[in-house]
Amino acid sequence: MSALRVLVLCPGRGSYLKEDLGSLAGVVSPAVDRFEQLRRQAGRPSLREIDGAGRFDPNLHLRGEHASSLTAAISLADLEQISPDKAQVVGVCGNSMGWYTALGYAGALPMEDCARLIETMGAWQASDQHGVVGGQIVYPLVGEDWRMDPAARARVEQAVAEIPDLYWSIRLGGQAVLGGSEQALATAAQRLPPIVQGSLSFPLRLPFHSAFHTPLLAATAERAEAELSDLDWGAPRLPLVDGAGQLWRPRWADPAALAAWTLGPQVVEPFDFSLMLKVALGELAPDAVVLPGPNSKLGGAVAQAMISLGWQGLRHKDDFVDRQRGPRPLLLAMRWPDQRRRLLAEA
């Protein structure tokens, strides 16, 4: 049986949740060791110790200086275990700050520099360093069947057009992630009609998040360009697709351009997750998308984006669920044991 052709999609910093505690227990990983070494040098607590805490503490686990590196380290540890006999990685992308993880895995940055980039950008979002700028809210654009609701999208577009300092942050499949100032977010929360889906009520505020991917982070981008100018950029070993829909090919990608986009537009311009997937699925033609690391919420966004694209004939949620139950699922989340086994060497 031939290896699956897979697209790796690395999750962003908001992915680590209560159910992810203990993900690093007993894990042997060179990538995690790189992060731990860097954190020791910076005087930050061990990721393994934070992950091994007896209970989930939002004030600890969701803080920018910990959440970003926890998510990236667990993702990279998962990816180290994929068997080339089971899966051929045809491309890599990452949601929001998961792009930084993708850069390391694809070889555009040495792992030491990948860890430094993630540690640095995450630490700048630490509330005790006055690094949090504005915030983010999430609002659904799809109904219960995961098909796009044009009225909901129109409401969001109107809010962004009319409310000062409110911006698109991430076009996340069937969800809008909006970034803005505190006043802008408060106004948007009043204007957008409340929606309840499952156990969640929207608009939903994301804790400890800055208004990433908006012009409000201009100072952060300038600081990144100055303080991270010595990162050792190179052309990736694997194809990369970024949040603007740009495909960066091995050998042909310009390292300077890759650095410029990552430290500039990636920080201050909207991250188009849906366009990223459209390009990656269309250009790289994978059999399935692999989600490493903590990603309990990202799978829904991927499925919703697939449905909006009509990928492999998907029209609504039931189509996707049927494919997932079949012999060749379209999405493999490495936190789910049955899906993880499809990617690892036989024990």
Strand content: 15-25%
Please work out how many helical segments DSSP would assign: 15
Please tell me the CATH architecture of the largest domain by its name: 3-Layer(aba) Sandwich
Number of domain units: 2
Mean pLDDT: 93
- Please state the overall shape, judged from the principal axes of the Cα atoms: globular
Strand order of the largest sheet: 2-1-11-12
| Gap from first CA to last CA | 18 Å
Can you count the beta strands?
A: 12
CATH class of the largest domain: Alpha Beta
CATH superfamily of the largest domain: Malonyl-Coenzyme A Acyl Carrier Protein, domain 2
If you consult CATH, what is the topology of the largest domain?
A: Malonyl-Coenzyme A Acyl Carrier Protein, domain 2
The H/E string reads EHHHHEHHEHEEHEEEHEEHHHEHHEH
Rg (CA only)? 19 Å
Which residues form runs of ≥5 with pLDDT under 50? none
Helix content: 40-55%
